[in-house]
Predict the 3D structure of the following.
Amino acid sequence: MDWSAFFTKILTKQLEELIAFNKIQGRQTLFQCLSGGPIHHRLMVTRFKRDLRQSGLRAIRLYDLRHTAATLMLLNGVDVKSLQNILGHSEIEMTMAYTHLLGTRIKQVAKMHSISPSKKASLKVVS
């Protein structure tokens, strides 16, 4: 199953419903506070920490979710230019940092799960 397409379809539908429900037009803020303005970053961080604590999940930074989303988008074929637009980076070099991290991570995983023996292996023939 193509999970990327599956989740893209679901998330697109949910965002369209949210936009229609809130009657959002043009460049209006999608996620709003009660007054209709943008949600302040500090409030989001405070709420996020509280929700993690109440759910019993380990503490992570809200920014880690952004980083994870960007990494998963790259792993699932989103091109770097599109990712730059999604993340709002003014310079492509900032977005390219994610591709560097992926390369490093791939090397780490390959080293940890290498199928080549670390020591000279002796084969025992069993008959």
User: Anything to note?
Assistant: Residues 121 and 127 are 19 Å apart (CA to CA). Residues 60-105 form one domain. Residues 114-127 have pLDDT under 50 and may be disordered.
